[in-house]
From TrEMBL:
Transmembrane stretches, start-end: none
Alphabetized UniProt keyword annotations: Isomerase, tRNA processing
The protein's name in its UniProt record: tRNA pseudouridine synthase D
Listed EC numbers: 5.4.99.27
Active site: 87 (nucleophile)
SUPFAM superfamilies linked to this entry: Pseudouridine synthase
Family listed: Belongs to the pseudouridine synthase TruD family.
InterPro entries from the UniProt entry: PsdUridine_synth_cat_dom_sf (IPR020103), PsdUridine_synth_TruD (IPR001656), PsdUridine_synth_TruD_insert (IPR011760), TruD_catalytic (IPR042214), TruD_insert_sf (IPR043165), TruD_pseudoU_synthase (IPR050170)
Role noted for this protein: Responsible for synthesis of pseudouridine from uracil-13 in transfer RNAs.
Domain TRUD: start-end pairs: 165-317
Catalytic activity: uridine(13) in tRNA = pseudouridine(13) in tRNA
Amino acid sequence: MIELPLPNELFEQLPRLNQQPLIDAHLRTVADDFQVNEILSFEPEGVGDHLFLYIEKQNCNSDWVISYLQRHFKLKPADVGYAGKKDRYSISRQWFSLYFPEKRSNEVSAIVETIDNDSFKVLTVTRHVKKLRVGAISENQFCITLRGLTEKLDEQIFGSLIANGFPNYYGYQRFGHQGNNLSKALQVLAGKIKVKSRSRRGIYLSALRSYLFNIQVAYRINHQLWSTALDGDCFSLSGSRSYFHCDKVDQPTIERLAQGDVSISGWLVGQQASEVTGAALTLEQSALTDFQPVIALIQSSPLGQRLQSARRPIRAFARDFKVLASNQQQLTLQFGLPSGSYATSLLRELFRIKDLALLENRND
């Protein structure tokens, strides 16, 4: 059986861009310390057969809410949509869609009013003509309080982080408690265990791809090539899932990279071969040399054959970054991140974080 270092341990070892001394800080001392608001990339039209619920949840993950809504409204799994998943140990506000035809509108209020639990509440109800799809997010807006700082952070240090971006690592939350999602992925692909839930299988396989992506980002940073384009690289467009291949890097592409209009991308391993060529392919293969058995397992397994290769930018930019409150031992930050980027990956550039949700064995 293939074995990999625990992702939580690996995450601590991933290289940082910031060379300044890190400050110790506690994250998620209380639920209010980690808040996130999901902003859709479109405005629901107010009419249509899909009921949109804007929900505030606490101490539960997005999958639990989806399961609850499915049972409560007596829907099929395919009838429930969402744009993204949010941390369990946080106060998160996000959208869900339910296939609930307009002809049944008179039932909605009564059904919504019967929702009775301590984990979430419905803030807004509206309608739209289409189901909510994964990734339909303009940004996630965070308000995070860090406590127990060992010293006050010089706010000028934020400048470089905001201007140049930060490594777009997948956060440790992706991998589950003690790397459980990762180990389960290897067992599923090898046929050692069977997981009936399609959603759960997807979580496991996504964790494995995320792990391999982090390896690529770390390799480029360690080789001083995080922001240096190579011939054959693929570039992600800012604010979009689109990307393009550049056989020969030209001056306009270099300028767009410097301006943040595009970013170098890494490979999300799937059935298709990576699209990079030339020097970029040589670098990518070097980064993943030790993980070829894992890639071969993904591409040969019947379940892995359903995974489509994709690209992800190796850097991300924080938007509207603000320091709301600061003193010697506490700091509150507000910022927006593009869909799929992790606040913990930004924070680790400045802090040596002790996530109390993780330390109390609560992370999933």
